[in-house]
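Morning - uridine-5'-diphosphate inputs below, output right after.
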Amino acid sequence: MKIVTVVGARPQFIKAAAVSRVFAGRQDCAEVMIHTGQHFDANMSDVFFQELEIPKPAYHLGVGGGTHGQNTGRMIEGIESVLLEQRPDALLVYGDTDSTLAGALAAVKLHVPVVHVEAGLRSFNLRMPEEINRRLTDHVSSLLLTPNEQGIRNLAAEGICGAQVINVGDVMYDAALHFGITAEQTSSILEQLHLAPSAYWLATIHRQENTDDRLRLQRIFDGLGRAAATVVLPLHPRTRKRIADMAVQVPGNVRIIEPLGYIDMVMLEKHAALIVTDSGGVQKEAYFHRVPCLTLRDETEWVELLDMGWNRLAAPMSEGFLDAFELSYSKGSEDHQPYGSGQASLAVIKAILTLAQGN
Ligand code: UDP
């Protein structure tokens, strides 16, 4: 069976690292990877391929830096020509970026079955580009692999149900378990940054709704400034640009560093006292490593973590927002494991093989 995988953005490299490791160990599957170029900086892309041993992409489309429309259009064109050349049995996409949607649209029109890993997530906020990408991708996919039961429920509410919808668990959990061990063995990031375990907070900020509005971004930094601890902030290039362009004031306890490779990121996550983020992936990783999390958004797709008490929403424009940084946060419930057992990648491959046999 031949599968073409489309990746382009940081979270997709991490998901692909988990799944491609399983592909690589099998005789019955060949994976051809396309990198769209959506994330192109060395520390947002190359580092992940090197340290996570993701196979070198066979195709690099070099599409990045444009608007959503420009990027998506160019990606569709590039992916379509690869699909015509490669004639795969299926196309695999992850998550909810422009690369995800472009892959799905190029494939479905050539009648190549689309496999969507991380299907079924919803924020119900159509102002988020990610929500548009994930909804459209789900509606043209032949195989919808959800990370949790919530994904199954969300899809059912849109009339998508049946044997093509499977809760495989979260491939990011596989990655967190596997590379969590590597991080403890090899990362020296705590020493490099002179940080003691549990004596700092870790933050990430990159979501368009937070970065593009000066008042909102400043409120986030004002909140971080209320923390009694040092806040380490590996800064996404988009946020760095906005801080400079909009002259956002960064408080003295916030320590801005360059974006990290995944191994160092995992190490900082594991030993943080609190994680503050607007990232989808980092919210879950906080739970995987059993660290309480404060989410800088009005809503989240990962609602089970709110219910279990591992995550709390801090909506930046809400009244009590700044006070949220002066409260203390305890660990949540261990009653159930919403993201599977760390074997999601194997379940992804088994589901794809079953799909290919049926076609
Ligand atoms: N990440 C990383 N280095 C960083 C910041 C994040 O390796 O400096 C990882 C993080 O651990 C998670 C993924 O990037 O696995 C999340 O990506 P991002 O926040 O960009 O996207 P989202 O999850 O919101 O789609």
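Note: The radius of gyration is 20 Å.

O.
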